[in-house]
Amino acid sequence: MPEVSRDNLREFVHRVASETPVLDIHTHVYSARFGRLLLYGLDELLTYHYLIAEVFRVAPLPYERFWGMSKSEQADYIWQHLFIEHSPVSEACRGVLTVLQAFGIDPKQKNLTSIRKHLSAIAREAYIDQVFKLSHVRRVIMTNDPFDDNERPVWEQGPEPDERFQAALRIDPLLNDWDGAVKRLAGWGYRVNGTLGTSDVAEVRRFLIDWVERMSPRYMAVSLPPDFTIPEDGPRAALIAGCVLPVCREAGIPFAMMIGVRRSLNPQLRLAGDGVGAADVTSVSRLCVAHPDNRFLVTMLARENQHELCVTARKHPNLMVFGCWWFLNNPSLIEEMTRIRLELLGTSVIPQHSDARVLDQLIYKWSHSRRIIADVLADKYLDLARAGWMPTEQEIRRDAADLFGGNFERFCG
Ligand code: HDL
Ligand code: ZN
Fold this sequence. Notes:
Elements: H1 9-19, E1 22-24, H2 42-46, H3 49-58, H4 63-67, H5 71-84, H6 91-102, H7 112-120, H8 124-135, E2 137-141, H9 152-156, E3 165-166, E4 169-170, H10 172-176, H11 178-187, H12 198-215, E5 220-224, H13 235-251, E6 255-259, E7 261-262, E8 275-276, H14 282-290, E9 296-300, H15 306-315, E10 319-321, H16 331-345, H17 361-386, H18 393-412
Parallel strand pairs: 1-2, 2-3, 4-5, 5-6, 6-9, 9-10
Antiparallel strand pairs: 7-8
This protein binds D-arabinohydroxamic acid and zinc ion (ZN).
């Protein structure tokens, strides 16, 4: 296979990175059969909760006044204050522009009404196809919550038919609000009383098995607060060890832990009100050691946790580090994290996920991240070249395929 010359290495790596189809392992998008849960189009892009948090900084107004606006009035307000009256330099603002550009729209030449008209003229199925084509994403993994009253009935009708959308079984209410979950589980016919005795354990396992069979999830997932520790008093540690991990082992799927979110720092901002806190990485290590037959996908929300998480991953082959989550999904931190990861873990990582909530965001979240990951990868190959090791085209394609989905698929088995 031909080696790549040093002079055109960077350009070749960028081309491969932009062309490699991605398996996006964590998103909040939905397939068409979920109806209104599938968000797409200009107003959804502009009312992304990241932009809601940002607009209150430059144009504060009474929260209820904003929440009382229609979706398009909120979008107009955000556009006016974050794009017209201030330069849209934040990552979430720039993302909207990247999406419009990909659809061939010059926002400087149009107004929101004509942009809305342009995008809403595309039928929903065609829109989904267009976004997958423009983003070079081959498959997304959704976030599927059996406790969500809008989502549950859809799953009760049957499995997901669109193979571009796969499930992840998200169990935050079970692990983070056991008392509330007991009431819901009992209402669905699971014989639980909250004592977490053998009957509760058996019934929670039955609940999880029922949903694994219904969803065929690629993994089970939970988001956890900064003060999450193992061991810890309370039901969460017992539910993880006694129910979640045995069912994951039996189903042959990983358990994903997303650690470090401080929910509702500002409840008036609703989805936009969450914050971040440094968490305990040693607890991840303890779980990996105590459950060697389980596989753990882990992402942490605090920048301060990233280096220690990579060092921990060097100790545990059953630990896979993934993504630049949420407040880390910005160029400066994606670059820093990708460098730390490649230098400590080689290509044995999942460098990114999109966390897209609006389907169109697949376009910008991936085009922004591919560029950064490609640049870091090119730098590492040039470091290799200085040591006399020039990668071949095939090796570069292999590495990109690993990073953009292959590592996840092998890790999931
Ligand atoms: O808990 C999560 O999965 C987070 O990603 C939240 O959904 C958060 O609101 C988000 O969308 N972050 O990007
Ligand atoms: Zn998420």
